[in-house]
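Hi everyone, sorry if this is the wrong subforum. Our group has a chain we'd like a structural model of before ordering constructs, and none of us has done structure prediction before. Sequence below.
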Amino acid sequence: MQGNWLNEFARRRPLWLPVDDHSPRVVLASRVSISRNLRGMLFTPFAGQEKTAEAVCHILHSEISRLPDWAEVTELEPRLMPPDHRAFLRERGLFRDSFCQIAHDGLAMLRKDEQGCCFCNDRDHLRVMYWSKGLELNELHNSCQQLVNALAKRLDFSENDYYGHLCRDVDLCGAGVFMEVLLHLPALALLEANRRKVLAQITAAVKESGNFLEAPSTPEFGAVCILRSGHLSREAAADAPARLAQVAEQICECELNERRRLARFNLVELCDLVSRARGLARSAYKMSESEMRNCLSAIWLGRECGLFHQTETSDVQELFGNAGSATIRMLHPDGVQDKEWTEDLCEQLRIDMLRQSLEL
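Answer:
Right subforum, don't worry. Here is the predicted structure as tokens:
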């Protein structure tokens, strides 16, 4: 049953992709999570102190059931899931690496609209996470905080006056709050000179912020930059949504200015970028996840800038969301006949998906 639901889930457009083709989207999505540990306890749900775990899960059920947006929830136990299923939920942004690789035991409650998750595990005893399209950090932080406050009335969270909340992971002492913004930056990230420019800008913002921001890394997502908050103190958490949004808006303006410059004054550079991407898609035998996303981002940029008669980007966006290896496996639930699932096979299937969808 779980596999059937996940296979259906894989065919849906990821939450963080745009829903229309009418205007360029730079901010794809925002995410906020709050972690809390229970006072004096290091437990492993479903494997160690069962009574504690059962009590926590019961309280979690009780509080979530009162929220109107949590009417449809899917419960998952990662330790019982096949590795590909865990990897798929990680690719969709619903599981963190630590939840899949370190905290093997636990319970995950996922809203079926992808916009909220609750976790109970041996690393963050409790973690609440909310997603949203666009730049809505303040609203997400408020939603997370309201649920955590409701849980705090029934659970004894570990904290003290100096450090704030004490989580098992020492890096999360303080507010236990973590924020992310996904930015699509094809005009800045795909051109070498611009890539240096935007990374320098973000690096400067990181230095100015102290521990507030982490330096971005984009190995898997290509032109999607993940802007992350760093360690937040209890005091800093209140201002964090506005500060992170300000940095994101500055980068967005830089990206949109570059898109306009390419479309108006440097079509040769834009045409070269798009032509190389289409040529790679036509001639390549196989393609990695980051290569596919870079290729799609270039075509996406070309369409948004009016380089083609076809300006819709829906097919490009759909491929963009399905570039991960685990997602490709979920889209082929019965496997590929007479072939063993390997990363090499996934790289070949990416090329097939590209050529079929884009009619190359």
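For your construct planning: The radius of gyration is 21 Å. Residues 234-265 form the longest helix (32 residues).
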